[in-house]
Amino acid sequence: MHRKPDGGWDKSRLPSRHVTEGPERAPHRSYYYAMGLGSREIGQPFVGVASCWNEAAPCNTTLMRQAHAAADGVKRAGGTPREFVTITVTDGIAMGHEGMRSSLVSREVIADSVELTMRGHAYDALVGVAGCDKSLPGMMMAMLRLNVPSAFIYGGSILPGQWRGREVTVQDVFEGVGKHAAGQMSLEDLCDLERHACPGDGACGGQYTANTMACVSEAIGLALPFSSALPAAYLDRDRYAQATGEAVMKLIEQNIRPRDICTREAFENAAVIIAATGGSTNGGLHLPAMAHEAGIAFSLSDACAIMKRTPYLADLMPGGRYPAKRMGEAGGVPMLLRTLFDAGLIHGDCLTVTGKTIAENLQGVVWRDDQDVIRPVSNPLSPTGGVVGLWGSLAPDGAIVKVAGLEHRQHRGPARVFDGEEACFAAVQAGDYKPGDVLVIRYEGPRGGPGMREMLSTTAAIYGQGISDKIALITDGRFSGATRGLCIGHVGPEAQAGGPIALVRDGDIISIDADAGVLDLEVDPISLEHRAREWTAHMTGYNSGALWKFAQLVGPAYLGAVTHPGGKAETHMYADI
User: Fold this and answer.
1) Positive or negative: CA dihedral 417, 422, 425, 431
2) I need a surface site. Which of 287, 367, 376, 445 has the fewest CB within 10 A?
3) pLDDT digits (tens), the chain, 577 positions
4) Strands of 125-130's sheet, edge to edge?
5) What is the C-alpha separation between 399 and 385, in angstroms, rounded?
6) Predicted structure pTM score
7) What is the sign of the dihedral through the CA atoms of 419, 424, 425 and 430?
8) How far apart are CA 481 and CA 320, in angstroms?
9) Is 378 designated active site?
10) For residues 515 and 520, what is the distance between their CA atoms, to the nearest angstrom?
């Protein structure tokens, strides 16, 4: 499709015809001549090559280089690349202060800005290059929203640091803050650790959110096999970027679009990969949001039901032994998909950006017994997945917890309530808690935050102090993929919506059973009704700007915290203009 008999391109059904074809588009073409294009390039499909490059953090610093390589692949395959850059808010830098309110909002801005650039300039296809927690799902959301032929490539993980004879990541630094506060680490050691934990380019080096969503990009079919495996510092990544540019041109010819690839079954595959890798709880937020763009109903409960029946196989940090680099060395996502497919746990007939199915891509992938990073299904780390959902009187809409490597799965104790993360972090740093407490951080949800902040600074401090097996923490906000301990996030309805978490008082007994998937507030319904009548919404203090706008539009976390009606409401699709 879209090829003429002479090998040229028929643009009569491609969006770029609106800016390149006919005498009335002479002014438009004059701009392209000004940028050095010739008539041949103007007559080819225009491919947007979007990257999230910036100098905010090392997860983004190689993205421009890889975008150039992807653009070269587009050129080699007969297309005309048009590179552009969108934003990234990097969670590691935003963590623990007001900046984290911008993190989830940035996912929407990334998707919106890519959509607007593609629409405004009538590009025919999209290559997306991203390297951080919200930029990966944001870029894939844009692909599903636009539904033009698209291919994704991850920027790659950071290499592990070396400190005193062991491998370390930024997680060790966050937890070092807690150790220092507890008198278990000197300031000199903490400062020495921070200089060695992050040795160069790339996203945080465990199975945190970025690497979780990178695995999703392969499992869901939007990225080439093995493309998420190599660390960012390896220049060989550029070969995968170039191949991604070439692949998108084949997708144009075959008219294969993201919604042909990302079916309901593909989203189920994505949930399986999150559970099997002990991935980030943020996957339970991003999969519903991505599905929403395609008009597919896929909620937190759908994702968690699949995760519950999936074995935990990849021995990756933070719950396991190995940094992300080791998974690539063990065979990457294809190796994991191999054992899952052989066990009948994934759908092999789902289409991918190779133009082939998952099963076809796995032909020739042979299980390796010489590695112990990825377990076979016959010998899992645990029979159920590393991420589970919880429901109950405290979370009617659900909540989520990472249980990979977690032994402390049941807890019952009195609530210590904090309206916002800062108050809780100060209490933890001061040791102002008791064994058995359930720390409740509320008014941190999508609306109430606003922005649904992550709480890694607090959870890492708890873990670093060595008391994560003695207390629990729950929030209507989020937790980083690097969080360890019994830390339950996404509690819904959120406090700002008047959910039960808004009614909790100090001393109320909260019961948690992660194995059973239960989160209950042991307060009689009549008392809760009285409290609800006295409750008033929290004043956020954000009355204008992007955070205000997000708070007005955002929906509940269990549906992905999305800000528009989604694919199901469409009467017009950009790809068909």
Assistant:
1) negative
2) 367
3) 578 787 789 999 999 999 999 999 999 999 999 999 999 999 999 999 999 999 999 999 999 999 999 999 999 999 999 999 999 999 999 988 999 999 999 999 999 999 999 999 999 999 999 999 999 999 999 999 999 999 999 999 999 999 999 999 998 998 898 899 889 999 999 999 999 999 999 999 999 999 999 999 999 999 999 999 999 999 999 999 999 999 999 999 999 999 999 999 999 999 999 999 999 999 999 999 999 999 999 999 999 999 999 999 999 998 899 999 999 999 999 999 999 999 999 999 999 999 999 999 999 999 999 999 999 999 999 998 888 999 999 999 999 998 888 888 999 999 999 999 999 999 998 889 999 999 999 999 999 999 999 887 888 888 888 888 899 999 999 987 677 789 999 999 999 999 999 999 999 999 999 999 999 999 999 999 999 999 998 888 899 999 999 999 999 999 999 999 999 999 999 999 8
4) 80-85, 46-51, 125-130, 150-154
5) 15
6) 0.96
7) positive
8) 13
9) no
10) 14
DSSP 211: H
Q: Can you tell me the distance from the alpha carbon of 415 to that of 505, in angstroms, rounded to the nearest whole number?
A: 7
Which pair of tokens denotes residue 345?
């746990």
Going by their DSSP bridges, the two strands 410-419 and 509-513 should be labelled as antiparallel
- Distance from C-alpha of 438 to C-alpha of 29, rounded to nearest angstrom: 63
Residues in the chain: 577
User: d(Cα 39, Cα 412) in Å, to the nearest integer?
Assistant: 71
Paired residues of 520 in beta bridges: 511
Q: Which of 480, 511, 527, 544 is catalytic?
A: 480
